[in-house]
Amino acid sequence: RSEVKGYCCVQLLVPRSRLYLRPKEWYQRALDWFGSAESYTSLFPIGSHLAKSDIICRTPCQLWMPWWHIVFGENVTAPKRHEDPRLPFFMQAR
């Protein structure tokens, strides 16, 4: 069984070729969905009160932090940042 392991407070360096793994429409749908009330209530199903500030703060999008590496074609389990030789030194900080 694999666990999804990504980084908190994501900083992305993505080669252009990885951006094209998904069509532009996929990114547009994701952006539209993350900015919707539906995304908030789907990710936070307890309670249905939704304030405008909830959507503006983009809390649902923040929950995608551990998933971005998968969106851009990486393995489900990301190596520890400080142990990943592919990253520039300044991104390996603990």
Tell me what the structure shows:
The protein is an all-alpha fold and 94 residues long. The chain contains 6 helices and no strands. The protein has helices at 16-19, 24-34, 37-43, 52-56, 59-62, 68-71. The longest helix is centred in the first third of the chain and has 11 residues, at 24-34. The chain is globular, with a radius of gyration of 15 Å. The model has no long low-confidence stretch (mean pLDDT 77).
> How many beta-strand elements?
0
Q: Secondary-structure element sequence?
A: HHHHHH
Q: Sheet bearing the most strands, described?
A: none
Radius of gyration: 15 Å
Straight-line distance between termini: 27 Å
Helix residue percentage:
25-40%
H/I helix tally = 6
Structural class category: mainly alpha
What topology emerges from the helices and strands here?
Blueprint: H1 16-19, H2 24-34, H3 37-43, H4 52-56, H5 59-62, H6 68-71
Give me some keywords for this one.
94 residues; mainly alpha; 6 helices; globular
Write a brief caption for the model.
It is built from six helices and no strands. It has helices spanning 16-19, 24-34, 37-43, 52-56, 59-62, 68-71.
